[in-house]
Amino acid sequence: MEERAQLHALLDASSDLLALVDDDGEIQYVNAASERLLAGDADARTDTLVGQQLSEYVHPDDESRLQAAIDAVTTGLSESSPRLTYRCRAADGSWASLDARLSATEPDSGSYLLTARVVSDGREPGSVRSSNPDRTYLRDLTETSNEVLWMFTADWEELLFVNSAYESVWGRSLSVLYEDASDFLEGVHPDDRERVEQAMGRLTNGTAVDIEYRIERPAEDSRWVWVQGEPVFEDGEVVRVVGFARDVTERHERTRQLQVIDRVLRHNLRNSMNIVLGYAAELDGTVDDDGTRSLTRLRAEGERLLDIADKQRELVDVLTTELQSDTVDIGHVVRETVDAVAPEYPECRITTQIDEGATALAFPKIDLAIRELVVNALEHCDGDDPAVEVSVRVDAETVVIEVRDRNPPIPVQNTMVLTGEREIADLFHGDGVGLWLVYWLFERSNGEVTFSENEPDGNCVRGLLPRTERT
């Protein structure tokens, strides 16, 4: 029982979705990540997924493709499937795209192990238990994960378990680590070792940790790993520490490349546009009326491009900054935003309605998204009675921000790209940069943003954020 409990703890520590499915397609086991995504309640796992048919959670358009991969694995045509992407039904009714791999448990048994990772959903995966799968299958599940799953005693003196992914990620020997539980620290970059040791101390003292650091592999460049750890309590005392480590080097490299490209493009664009605007200023008063109108349009377009460059910088900052969500008084942010921008648009009437206690858990730069929504509505104000209404409503679990206007519709191709209904390549103009900024700020806040028509005309942009109590 002790070994089975340890294996359960390791599998629940993984952020990968793991499942054991029998030859009838019935789910026999799911880990914590699977339950939070598919059932939404990590404490009701046995009653929700175990015993259900896997096909009930698969998108109808993907069933045949997934079944073909299952047949290939379970009939012995292939020991494991290539990675494939399919959609599964999440607890909230939406469809989440999974990057998955299947592996047979035994030749011709008909049962298989499924390992998957969410690639489009944005939510944090969750957790599950099982009925009573054989511990051999549980060990098989740990070996299908690309993450390093580990368990130590609370004092870090003894390694209780680690899967074989350790050798491929760390580039160090499993047998040596079992002999010397501190050997993994030798692979930690010297500049990061103190932070890692401090995190180990927090785990020993009963505090969960979430940390990224570099490891040095023999004859290779440094690699980045993301590590989450949890203390395991018995009778109020920490007896074990358990967690996972994932290689996130590619993400760090993409972040660095994005920052470099952003700096180069923005620098060149600003320099060139400042030159263009400078020449336009010199031509003032030297051209006829038609030329003056052309210069006015030229300056307006130049200023618009510079504004897009600024939004691009903000967007890159949002995508590359490692910040945790914090408590934000949304009502205060909306009032400050409206007070700051309303004087710039005297021709447009703006009203607010803000519930008390509108405190949300949000990314620290969420004010940029709110400002973008308000300014975008004000900039396009027109008609006989131009007006913008901004409201903040407090529901049981969410804070809802609404910006309603009477403006021409937001181009549908922009909103379809954000919602995944259209390819990114279709967003071929710069006007969508502000909407991407809004979308990703709400996404990083574990919220969402939706677009609909206002009544009788105009737009309604609604942003939802998780509600929290003021701290």
Automatic annotation (TrEMBL):
Residues 209-260 form the PAC domain. Residues 264-469 form the Histidine kinase domain. The keyword Ribonucleoprotein does not apply. Keywords: Kinase, Phosphoprotein, Transferase. PROSITE patterns: HIS_KIN, PAC, PAS. It holds the Pfam family PAS_3. SMART domains: PAC, PAS. GO terms for molecular function: protein histidine kinase activity. Its EC number is 2.7.13.3. It comes from the Archaea. It catalyses: ATP + protein L-histidine = ADP + protein N-phospho-L-histidine. Residues 3-77, 134-207 form the PAS domain. NCBIfam families: sensory_box (TIGR00229). This is histidine kinase.
